[in-house]
Specification:
This protein has seven helices and nine strands, in the order H-H-H-E-H-E-H-E-E-E-E-H-E-H-E-E. The strands form two sheets. Strands 3-2-1-6-7-9-8 form a seven-stranded mixed β-sheet. It has a two-stranded antiparallel ribbon with strand order 4-5. The longest helix is centred in the first third of the chain and has 107 residues. The protein binds S-adenosylmethionine (SAM).
Length: 329
């Protein structure tokens, strides 16, 4: 139970005193004083009622304000919750879409990688089979340098060796010396009807290595001759990439087989393009032109230009890495 405040006690005391004074005045027949006391008590009662109402009114306002504030808080919470839910749904949807896309992309990439690996394995197996056939065909007199990578692959070498053994090819010009120079030497030797190989190399160091290999295999006296042919500018008007010095082949005529396997791509754009413009007049009728690294974009563009510019030139065969072109007879 709440104790009355000091102000209440004081008011009660004052009212009590006024009441007592009024009673005494009434007993003493002092009507005027009694009346004043009654009026004072009535006024005090009226003030008390007004004050209580005012206090009640303030409380009601506070309650109303609190209720309104609570409603506002409620509404804010509801809005925030709604926004959180909406954003969470949107994020979830975006994540699902992205995840589905990534999964499809990953599946696609894995599929392509698997196909690439299978294709590479197939080619390696083909090259191993070709190398077995090549090795079976000849009595090799020393270890052979590797095939593939910088050199022609075994499948391409087998095709070339077959070509040389089955056709009356006498003059072979090879742009870029190496392993192929040795296998072609064995092919001419086994065929036994003569013929020669002129192999141009822009790199003196590797030209020297090929010459040493030829000696090690017993080909010191031919049929292959490796010539140093530095790359020089301006062999063809409008073609900026350097190519083999024309002085290195000025004595060569009647080429039956031209193998385009140099200069290296690093020497510039369309590095091998000059081969046909520069040697066309030296090719024999029906000559075969073998393009190594044929799938590369530069080699594709090179062949497109040659086929467009040289009448009678056509595609006759191809492997995974080489294209065989032939001149009309
Ligand atoms: C594409 S390779 C030509 C290789 C050659 N036609 C063959 O199939 O073996 C181009 C250049 O590789 C360089 N080369 C030759 N023998 C090499 C060797 N043992 N290692 C690295 N490069 C070599 C030569 O300078 C050659 O001109």
């Amino acid at each position: 139970m709440r104790l009355p405040s000091h102000k209440l006690l004081l008011a009660a005391g004052v009212v009590g005193v006024v009441l007592a004074v009024g009673l005494v005045a009434a007993i003493a027949d002092n009507t005027g004083l009694a009346l004043v006391c009654v009026l004072l008590i009535q006024s005090a009662a009226l003030l008390a009622v007004v004050d209580t109402r005012r206090r009640q009114g303030g409380l009601a306002d506070k309650v109303t304000n609190h209720a309104a504030a609570l409603k506002r808080v409620d509404r804010t919470i509801a809005n925030v919750s709604q926004r959180v839910v909406t954003e969470a749904r949107a994020s979830e949807k975006a994540l699902r879409t992205e995840f589905a896309g990534n999964r499809a992309d990953l599946r696609d990439r894995l599929g392509r990688t698997r196909k690439g690996i299978e294709r590479t394995l197939d080619l390696r197996v083909q090259d191993i089979e070709a190398m077995i056939q090549l090795s079976d065909r000849f009595e090799l007199r020393a270890a052979m340098p590797p095939s593939g990578r910088w050199a022609l692959n075994a499948g391409g070498l087998l095709k070339l060796v077959d070509l040389v053994e089955r056709h009356p090819i006498r003059t072979i010009v090879e742009l870029g010396s190496g392993t192929s120079t040795l296998w072609l030497s064995y092919a001419l030797e086994r065929r036994g009807t003569g013929g020669r190989i002129i192999s141009l190399d822009h790199d003196q160091h590797f030209a020297g290595i090929t010459r040493a290999e030829l000696v090690a295999h017993g080909f010191a006296e031919g049929p292959a001759e490796v010539r140093d042919a530095p790359l020089v500018e301006g062999v063809i008007d409008g073609h900026d990439t350097p190519w083999y010095d024309p002085a290195s082949f000025q004595d060569v005529e009647g080429i039956d087989l031209l193998i385009v396997d140099g200069p290296p791509m690093a020497s510039g754009g369309l590095a091998r393009y000059p081969a046909l413009p520069m040697l066309l007049s030296r090719l024999a009728p029906g000559a075969i032109v073998v393009v190594d690294d044929a799938p590369r974009p530069d080699e594709q563009e090179m062949m497109r230009r040659w086929l467009a510019d040289v009448p009678g030139l056509g595609r006759v065969d191809q492997t995974e890495r080489q294209v065989f072109l032939a001149l009309g007879e």
